[in-house]
Amino acid sequence: MNAPLTLGSELDLLLPITALLPITALLLVSQSNPYQTLVLRGILGSVATLVYALLGAPDVALTEALVGTLLSTTLYAVALRSSMALRLDDRRTQSEPSRDAQLAAWIAPLHLRLRLNKPGTAAMTGSHGWLGDNGHLVLLQPQLLNKLEQCPGYGPWRASGGALHLSQESQS
After folding, report:
1. How far apart are CA 124 and CA 155, in angstroms?
2. Alpha-carbon span 63 to 49, nearest angstrom
3. Which residues pair with 108 in a beta bridge?
4. pLDDT-derived band of residue 9, with 50, 70 and 90 as boundaries?
5. Which terminus of the chain is more solvent-facing, meaning fewer CB atoms within 10 Å of its CB: N or C?
6. Given a cut of 60, is residue 49 above it in pLDDT?
C-alpha cells in the first residue's frame, strides 16, 4: 500500500494541482456566463477532491466529490435552468414567429430563454411583462428594461417597428 503524499516528498506533483484551485476559483467568480460557471464549479470540486485524495484524506475527498461537486453542481444546474427565462404573457391577437425569433435573438446575449405564456392557458407566476401586437413589449422591472436597451438586438427591434416600455404599474 502506498503512503499518502506529503508536502515534502512530492511537492513537484502537488504544487501544480493545488495551484489549480485558486486559478479555477478566480475564473469561476469572473464569469458572466452562468453556464460557464456551472462547468467551472464542477472542475473546482473535482480538483479539490483530487487534492484531498492525494494528501491521504479519502473521507474528505469522498464528501467533496458527493456534496461539493455532484450535489451542488446538480442543484445549481436545476436552479439555473428554471430561472434563466424571460417569461412574457402573449397578448397578441395572432402569432408572429418572426417576432418571436427576433426577440429570442435579442435576449440571447443575456443568457435568457424566451417563455411565452399563451392565452387560454394558466399563466405562469413571475411573469416579467407582456408582448402585444406589432412588437409592443412591456416590462415590469426597470432593471430588465435597462439591460434589454443595452443589448445589440434593441436597435433592430425598434427598426422593425417594435417598442419597449415600462409598465405603468411598476412606475407608481
Report:
1. 29
2. 8
3. none
4. low
5. N
6. yes
The pLDDT, as a whole number, for residue 55 is: 85
CB 106 within 8 A of CB 157: yes
DSSP code for 141: -
Which residues lie below 8 Å from residue 55, measured CB to CB, with a gap of 6+?
4, 5, 6, 14
d(CA 61, CA 92) in angstroms, rounded, equals 55
Q: DSSP alpha helices (H): ranges in 55-166?
A: 58-63, 72-83, 97-107, 142-150, 154-159
Which candidate, 115, 95, 120, 112, places its Cα nearest to that of 153?
112
Q: What is the pLDDT of residues 67-102, one digit of tens each?
A: 988 998 899 889 888 888 899 999 998 888 889 999
Sequence-distant (6+) residues with CB within 8 A of 151 are 106, 107, 109, 110
Take residue 69 and report the three cell numbers written for it: 461537486
The average confidence (pLDDT) of the chain is 86
Helix, strand, coil % over all residues of the chain, rounded to 5: 60, 15, 25
Residue 129 near residue 167 (C-beta atoms within 8 A): yes
pTM of the model: 0.64
pLDDT confidence of residue 24? 92
